[in-house]
Amino acid sequence: MEQLLTALRAVAEPTRLRLVVLCARGELTVTELTQILGQSQPRVSRHLKLLCEAGLLDRFREGSWVFYRLSQSGPAGALARQLVAACDDADPTIALDLQRLSAIKRQRADLASAYFRENADQWHRIRSLYVDEREVEAALIEIIAATDPRDLLDIGTGTGRMLEVLAPRVERALGIDQSREMLSIARVNLERAGLENGLVRLGDMYQLALPDASFDAVVIHQVLHYADRPAAAIAEAARVLRPTGVLVIVDFAPHTLEFLRDEHAHRRLGFSDVEVAEWCTAAGLDPASPHHLPGDPLTVVIWTAHRHAATYSALTEDLRTRASTALLEGELH
Ligand SMILES: C[S@@+](CC[C@H](N)C(=O)[O-])C[C@H]1O[C@@H](n2cnc3c(N)ncnc32)[C@H](O)[C@@H]1O
């Protein structure tokens, strides 16, 4: 009860309630929140500190950036979610905050698209700067072969490399990406490789235009570090996974290479095993032990999570609700 009272006291102030509503829309930095609220950074930081101490928000530091997001656990976290649901997006103050958030996200998305547009033709070279592709691909092939999927979805397919590697092992493979430039290269690559069962389409990982439970395997390879809502991207991937299906996420372990943010549009500097496992569990999946492929300086991690038939039907409704929330949030992009 004491915890709840502290949380209620902390949020009973207009700016702090606005901060809670904003942090429900993604992982945001203090700079972004300051821009939206139009208040000084020390003032916003003070509010954020109070909200974190009360358990309503989580704060995490990654290199020189600090992110805030809605608390994932505890009674204060549950209260935060209820408050967000009770707030009316049409309220003039909230509507203006959301509009400003939308503008910031658009600006960020434009920067990332410009990066992908400019680097589409040399993406393979950039990738090979920090991962041993053959090792990662061999491990992926092994995981996919063990689950023997009929169809596979590659989210953020880029130049279609994952489709080239995995499509020969399935009946149907679909790659989606938000960059037309990447997709045009992927089409050339698929044609050159003679992969008639591989298709690519324009799409957004937060809002897949695909039915529930429509794929046996979903791959998210080197995409999540661009996401401002990695948990929502995982929930959306889980939604399209069939009962007994497998989700495979490949990304970096936590690192400190800030230049990847400045020069290569990365938002997150890798992910911990614990946070990926939590997101998978929240999406109704059972995470397996991650596979680490240490490199210099970056370590690649393969996280695998399975949907079990028994948990699927119980979770379907919850996932649908979350998917429609993701849909609403997607409109902010
Ligand atoms: C680093 S590339 C990786 C491509 C591919 N998975 C690979 O490993 O070769 C990241 C890709 O994610 C795509 N991407 C980023 N945000 C996305 C989103 N919201 N929806 C769909 N694709 C997205 C980018 O356009 C880019 O092609």
What attributes characterize this protein structure?
single chain, 333 residues, alpha/beta, eight-stranded mixed beta sheet, three-stranded antiparallel beta sheet, 14 helices, 11 strands, 51% helix, globular, binds S-adenosylmethionine
Radius of gyration (CA) equals 20 Å
Total E-strand runs: 11
Given as residue ranges, the uncertain stretches (5+ residues, pLDDT < 50) are 320-333
Mean pLDDT: 87
Shape: globular
Which series of helices and strands comes N to C?
HHEHHEEHHHHEHEHEEHEHHEEEH
N-end to C-end Cα span: 38 Å
How many alpha or pi helices? 14
Identify every distinct bound molecule in the structure, by name, code or SMILES: S-adenosylmethionine
Largest sheet: 8 strands, mixed
User: Approximately how much helix is present in the residues?
Assistant: 40-55%
